[in-house]
Fold this protein.
Amino acid sequence: MKSIIYLFITICFLGSTNLLAHSGGHYHKGDGIILNTWRLKSGEAIKGNFSFAKDNQIFLEQEEGIIKPIIIDDLIPQDQLLAKFKINKFSDLNFSNIVEKENDNYYKYLPLTIVLLLVIMIYSINRNFIKFYIFQSSLGLSTLSILFIFSILMACSKSDVTNSNNSIVTPIVTPISVTIPKTSSAFMDSAFAAFKPSIGTSWDDTYFYIASTGIPSHNMMIGITNWQQQVPITQPYNGTNSWSIPLQPVYATTPLSTKTNLMKGAVAVAVNGIPIFNALNNRGEDSYKIGELDDWGGHCGKGDDYHYHAAPLHLSAINGIKPIAFAVDGFPVYGSKEPDGTNMIALDTCHGHNGANSLYHYHGTNDYPYVIGALKGKVTLDPNTTAPENQVISQAITKPVRPATSPLTGAAITDFVTVGTNSYLLTYKRGTKNGYVKYSWDANNKYTFILTDTSGNSVTNTYQR
């Protein structure tokens, strides 16, 4: 009879342990959860619901359990007030959660404690039963073994290693405290070496400088089907107006997304001295997809300045596994191969990753965002610009020679050739007829443009730079 009672107690104990479990989970797509939108002073919008706050930061839970840290001072004033409201509202709740976690250290050993207490209690009632039932009978040994193993499992399940339904999510915080090794100026100079003397390089303790004319050695403009009537001319990227890349990259607290920022100015400089702009133009359109770019991933801006919007992967044919560019935050940009020549591994949202040497770098690809998805490193924004048309400073500036031109609907550039010293001829087709732009400049920086439309009418304009 007693054995039946003890067996009943055992079964009740095993059945009652489920009460210690509790469910958990995260926001998933399609589950109907509405995520709050938080706006930064930079113009970037971030979706996520308030989770907790620490050290002047709030941490937002996004879809699939991703935790996003945001510095409160980076929020617009209205959202700073919301953050403080959330912090005050949830302070008591967060305190109770901390107490519950501390109590877990007690509860995780409770099942094993109960087993030991049961054995002691039964022993005190009937020593002979304990000797026979627990230590001599096969049923008793099996029961004791099951209780012991189950108790250990329950203790583990309440430890810091939690089950998949209630996993602890480590906040994703950019390691801003990590000191990145200073980039070797010799390493950077080696990446530009193949394009000298068309470009020039120099450096000091802080920056690496690139001087160029803004005209690449490869051909240009052919393949553009969405043309703004702009053509490439030389730019004074030299002296104090050279491109500058910081030698000491520093991780940004929050990478600056190119989807909502930097639609003006360069985000990187290619090793042939040509700047690389955001994949999106100043209207937020993918320049490549709407036909604005030539066969080399570039076109000209309003200042007749040639630049890339897509990755100049063709430079890898010259540079091999060396970088094809350097971003304005100081990190290198590689082509489709890793620095050691192996195939490119998965990229993060910034369009880069840490390499085998643990150093961060970007990659150029044939798909959006092509070069930079977000700037991983700290940069200084021009205070005179606002998102999305903000830009990084300091960087070289263009010097136009004529008023900005307008789009020519239906025009496709079919040819672009050199016809003399500092003289070019661009051919475009509109319908079945060709039009032409012939232009040149002399030693005194006098520019002459001869514009011939598809009807054969010509207009000559001169400008002095």
User: Anything to note?
Assistant: The radius of gyration is 33 Å. Confidence is low (pLDDT under 50) at residues 1-25, 92-109, 147-176.
